[in-house]
Amino acid sequence: MLPKVSNEFTSIGCNRVPQVAAWGKDGMVAFGAYNYVALYYPEDPECRGIISTLTGHKDRVNCVDFIYRGNELNQINVAIISGSVDRTARIWKLTKDKKWVNSAILESHGGSINTLGVTRAKSIIVDKDLFVTGSADGAIKVWERSIYDDVHDSVKCLQTINLEKKHPMALALSYLPESKIPILACGSTDKRILLYVQKDGLFIPSLTLQGHENWIRSLSFATYTELPLSNSTIVSSASDSTIQEQYKLKDGDLLLASASQDKYVRLWRVSYNGEVSGPLDSEEITNGKSKEKKSLRELLENLPDDTMDTLSFDKKVQLHTKAHIIDVDLTSIKKRYSVMFEALLMGHDDWVYSVCWQPPTSIVDEEGNARYHQPMSILTSSSDKSMMIWKPDQETGVWVNLVRVGEIGGYALGFFGGLFGPKGNHILAHGHTGAFHLWKNLSSDHDWQPQVSISGCFNSVQDITWDPTFKYLVSVSLDQTTRLFAPWIRQLDIDQKEGAQVSEKQNSIVTTWHEIGRPQIHGYDIQCIAFVNQWRFVSGADEKILRVFDAPKNFMQSLSKLLGEEVSGELESRPLGANLPPLGLSNKAIFNYD
């Protein structure tokens, strides 16, 4: 009889690019890990880490997202789509046997696929899926997916949009308000947002939004929902009501958030203005913009450039508040939409890589019925080592950052992406080290506390070895780190194991593996490692020098607590810890008297 083999632990770092991770409706995170798509449940009370890796891509995965279907709060993720440097996009779905399969391969791009856009709306069509891919070949391709059978999908390319000398950096897809007419937003290297509206099955260029002063790295759509007249179940109700009154957002308005390397986030509003009987007169059209009544906003807009520069609080940032008009011709009627700049979010000190709306939630209206609601809350991540949560101020309606979390230290180089959990009480970030950073809101007062997450090497692992007692193992990698992995043996608290019976909660011993330390952070690629004894190892790197490392007291004590047993060794004679000096290659021992 063959022995049963199961995967106990998987460690791999997240790829160091934006848009490479997504958080699905069921609580699962999918992210690019070298050539793989890794799956992980951040809210798992047992902290089991990566549960599966999807194999198929031949080069680095650049972007990942979930495909949703359904109406309002009944939406579910039905598939995962990933784009890669290998010039392909792949669709992955779960079969009836609960196995992940690669159901379709999209191979028509001529360059690396760097960005994806999947439909995000209050209600999404359930028979077919519309999504877009953007590539380094300067093209955007529009795709339509339908289910063929349990393991295969039918995918066809509906359209190719060539941006010529520009490259798509961010894509977002939704429906125009009060319709099922798709609208596509594209942020590119020319610092503008291009809006396309679908007509007769093809996306037509409709509008160009200007304002950003650098590349646009992230776009995200959300549908605004009005709150009931009296509602006390949502913490953000006061601020949402203020926004409704101050800026007259209407139920169903489409909001677009854009993040840029100019350090700013901009909000744009798309509103339905009703039906029109005929086209605009030629005198009413000026470069695609409607000629409206002279308002204070338009007077400011029409001032000379030098005057606008003096009014601007930043010479590089100007506020354009004129409404742009989009007319959509249907079979018998013409619908008119207005697009307007809504808000400027300032607070980050470096490039903003991602912007993410808080997922919709359920509220109770005045009649006691559950109702779909889109919170006015945005999460942004930046190279300044921070993530921020933005909400409108309760008094003024001005968007402000209420929460700021992040890293402190000279080795941290910022975040590439930030994600809201499906319930809105968790946020997740990934950055330059390949690790994920997880925070949970423990109360309604924005008490965000760090939680256990996952990490791994972000370059090739060259060597790995067990310690002589087989209690832990150490790896070395071309990411210039030595990482130590050990089991965490513990008993789950009663509140941690949600959904379990009382008898199951008691005496529930859990063992999971984690990275608990990095004994060596080097300036050269590390190639080999070997143990001398349980508390001493030797590593060799490209510098052609062997370095010997001894375990400090702090590590031995921490390992003892994680394993739940005493460790042997001369504990008192060992240094307390170790420190790596700036620009140094060797750890310096720290003693109690230092």
Automatic annotation (TrEMBL):
Keyword Repeat in annotation: yes
This protein is called Elongator complex protein 2
InterPro entries recorded for this chain? Elp2, WD40/YVTN_repeat-like_dom_sf, WD40_PAC1, WD40_repeat_dom_sf, WD40_rpt
Question: Which taxonomic lineage is given here?
Answer: Eukaryota, Fungi, Fungi incertae sedis, Mucoromycota, Glomeromycotina
| Localization terms from the record | Cytoplasm; Nucleus
Pfam families this protein is in?
Answer: WD40
Report each WD repeat as a residue range: 54-94, 106-144
Q: Name one GO cellular component term.
A: elongator holoenzyme complex
Any one Gene Ontology BP term: tRNA wobble uridine modification
Indicate yes or no for the key word DNA repair. Answer: no
Q: Which UniProt keywords apply?
A: Cytoplasm, Nucleus, Repeat, tRNA processing, WD repeat
Pathway listed for it is: tRNA modification; 5-methoxycarbonylmethyl-2-thiouridine-tRNA biosynthesis
Query: What organism is the protein native to?
Result: Dentiscutata erythropus
Q: Which protein family is named in the record?
A: Belongs to the WD repeat ELP2 family.
